[in-house]
Amino acid sequence: MLVFVTILGIARTRTFVKVSVLVGLISLCHRAASWEPATFLSGALLAEVSFIKAAYLESRGSSIFGEKATRSEGLSAFLYLAPRLGWSFLFFFGVYIGSHPQIGASETPGYRTLISLIPYPYASNGLIIGVFYLAIGAVMIVFALENAPFLQRIFTTSIAQYLGDISFSLYMLHGVVEFTLGQWLVPKLIEVTGGWKNGQLGFGGTMLLAGLILAPITLWVSDVFSKSVDEKCVVFARWVSEKCREPSIL
Which one-letter DSSP state was computed for residue 124? Predict the structure, then answer.
C-alpha cells in the first residue's frame, strides 16, 4: 500500500520530483530502521531510473552497453569491457553484502568492517543489525541485473523461470514444511549422523541430508499450491474485476 500510494501521489510530477521524493522517503525509512518499506520503495526508484534510461537511449537511438553498439562504434577493448566489469563488480558485491550474517559477523573478516559502517538506527537494535546490508545488497543486485543482460542469463533458464513461477508459493510454504516435517526429520537424522557430537561434520551432514529430503518435497508442495490455489485465485480475481467494471455506455 505504501508503494501504491506513493506512486499515485507522484505519478503526474516531473521526473526530478519523482526521484527526489523516492530518495527522500527511502532515506527516512532507513533513518527509522524500517528496512522493509525502504526496500520496496527502492524497487520503485529502480523502475523510475529504468524509465529514464530507456527515454535517454531512445533519444540517442543506440544502446550504451549493447555489444553491437560498442563494436560498431569501434570503441577500444577497455571501453567494451569496462561496463561489464563494473556491473559484474556491483552484482557480486551486492551478493557479498547481501550475505551479511545475522550472527557472528563481528568475528568474520570483511564483515567486521561493514558492521562499523551500519547506521545508528540499525546498529542500536541487535535483532535487525544485519538486515541493513541485506536491503542494500538486494538493491545492488537488481540494479546490476537490470543493466547487464549478460548477467541475466542465469535467471532466464528454464529452471530459473520455473522457480520464478512458483516463487510466491515457495515463499509461503517453505516455512510450513520446515516447521512440520523438518521438525520431525532433523532429530531423526541427528540420530544417524550424531549431530554436534561429531562436530561440524556431524552437524553439516545432518543439514545436508535434511536439505536433500526437504527441498524436493518443498518444491512439489509449492508446485501443487501454485497450480491449484495461486493461479486459480488470479483467475477468480480477474473474473471479479470484470464483473465489477462499469458497463460501457456505447
Answer: T
